[in-house]
Amino acid sequence: MLLSTLVNTKEELQQILRLQKENLIQNIDDTEMQSQGFVTLHHDLQTLQQMNGLAPAVIIKDDDKVVAYALTMLKECRQLMPDLEPMFALLGKLSWNNQPLTNYRFYVMGQICIAKAYRGQGLFEQLYGHHKKIYQSRFDLFVTEISTRNHRSLRAHEKVGFKIIDVHRNNLDEWAVVAWDWK
Q1: What is the CATH number of the domain that holds 36?
Q2: pTM listed for this prediction
Q3: Helix axes 151-160, 123-135, angle to 10 degrees
Q4: Total structural domains in the chain?
């Protein structure tokens, strides 16, 4: 049975890292990247533990196996992931509904991934639904950045309710910044 929950153990974090490694852009071929999507950043256990200590990630488990995850990244995580500093700096300059984004209580999706055997079963929506259930009382917006080459992820985020608020390019890729309004 598939169960949505929050990360509670070091073993769950280690399972997230294994799933992440299987889906890193450098570990998959171009065909899979185009059809199935990919993740860009690699985390380490210490960073995940620190992120999880601030706000637990949402996972879906099949019995004891983590088959999907959606990492929670509060603004306080900014120092934990130096590769994301440009994104956090950009978020400080963006607007939502003609107001500076910084006027809103928001957090960032650190990364979302579903095991290959579990795709197409509604787990993406289930992960985000659990995020909303857990964090909606604390936040107005949920924000993330998606590679514009990751068509599957862009479509899935749009289906959940995210709207594009910015598109920009950096040394890694072209990115769409999207936000989901919970107000």
Answers
A1: 3.40.630.30
A2: 0.88
A3: 50
A4: 1
